[in-house]
Amino acid sequence: xxxxxxxxxxxxxxxxxxxxxxxxxxxxxxxxxxxxxxxxxxxxxxxxxxxxxxxxxxxxxxxxxxxxxxxxxxxxxxxxxxxx
Length: 84
Description:
Blueprint: H1 3-6, E1 8-11, H2 17-24, E2 31-36, E3 42-49, E4 54-55, E5 65-77, H3 78-83
Antiparallel strand pairs: 1-5, 2-3, 3-5, 4-5
C-alpha cells in the first residue's frame, strides 16, 4: 500500500504490546508521526487518524488493533521538527 499515492490506508500489522496500547487510544482527527528508523531516521509523514481503533481481522484474538489513516504531510526531518 502506498499512502502517498492512495491518500488513505488501514494501519495494521502492529505486533508490539506498547503499539497496541497507543493505537487503542487513537481517535478520529488525531495526528500520527510515521517514523522511518532506517539510514535517514526521519519522520516520513504526518498522518491523520480517521477512524477509531478496531480489532485487526488478521488476529484470532482481540489483541490486534487497526486504525484508518489519511495522508497529511510528508518528509519532515528530526532537525526540522526540533527547529519548529
